[in-house]
Amino acid sequence: MKVGTVVKLRVAREVPFGFFLTDGEEDVLLHHSEVTEPITVEQEVQVFLYQDHEGRLSATLTIPTVQIGQYDWVEVVEVKKNLGVFVNIGLKKDILVSMDDLPAIFSLWPTIGDKLYCSLKVDNKNRLYGKLGTEEVMRAIAIPAEPQVFNKNIKGTVYRLLLAGSFIMTEEGYMGFIHESERKEEPRLGQEVEGRIIDVKEDGMINVSLLPRTHEQLDDDANEIFEYLQGRGGSMPYWDKSLPEDIKRRFNMSKGAFKRALGKLMKENKVRQEEGWTHINDNEK
């Protein structure tokens, strides 16, 4: 009998703390807390095998969708920095996804509530671990996107991180790629993100941007600059001729985006520029 598998066993006998099940050669305990429906001696039952908290082979009538060789989305329920993350597969015992299978940078690890596409694997001590879906596994479940979904808004879960960008699986089942230039910050593994489709490839894969559309970004940038001005009493030592690196350091936006946002505020008569400074107009104070 192997942990992480579903087997049919015969109920051999009842004991004060549960039932012993057998395959004719080996017995395994089905604890009363794992009995979800009435069973009797000599009955055949289908159970999932796992190791309990003391490392003993045990059985449960709860059959998880995640098994050895069988994948599903599972939720992260605990994070241990020097160990990994624990996911809930429907059992009383949560399953560890080892830190060896997670990003090298801790800030990119999944947090509680994030989702991972997992199956199970067994180590040399017969302990169950979560096994993340590979690129091949994700391609096997993906649905090709049609050209008409271009520019649509989408939600998806990050399942793979690369230096060049992040891969996601959308709610519709499309495989998507977010290039590093199409995001403000790198999303976590397992994080749900919202974006828009900016390209549909011939193979049905999509390219996704997490950046707002131009008019949305313009409003956001203008609001950020105006709020910064208000926080400084109405004046700041930045204007449309400020150095790009100074603008980037203070506002995390390009000089082009900064000038467009500043231009919008001036057009709306909210601000004015004077000798390297930008001031909120009196009518806006």
Structure description:
It is a single chain. This protein is an alpha+beta fold and 285 residues long. The chain folds into 4 domains: 6-60, OB fold (Dihydrolipoamide Acetyltransferase, E2P); 72-133, Nucleic acid-binding proteins (OB fold (Dihydrolipoamide Acetyltransferase, E2P), Beta Barrel); 137-209, OB fold (Dihydrolipoamide Acetyltransferase, E2P), CATH 2.40.50.140; 214-284, Winged helix-like DNA-binding domain superfamily/Winged helix DNA-binding domain (Arc Repressor Mutant, subunit A). Helices cover 16% and strands 38% of the residues. The protein has helices at residues 135-141, 214-231, 244-251, 255-267; strands at 6-15, 18-22, 27-31, 44-51, 57-60, 72-80, 84-88, 95-98, 115-122, 128-132, 153-162, 165-170, 175-179, 192-200, 206-209, 235-236, 271-274, 277-280. The strands form 4 sheets. It has a 5-stranded mixed barrel. A 5-stranded antiparallel β-sheet has the order 8-7-6-9-10, with no helix packed on it. Helix 2 packs across helix 4 (255-267). It is elongated. GO terms for molecular function: nucleic acid binding. Belongs to the CvfB family. This is S1 RNA-binding domain-containing protein. Pfam families: CvfB_1st (PF21191), CvfB_2nd (PF21543), S1_2 (PF13509), WHD_CvfB (PF17783). It comes from Lederbergia citri.
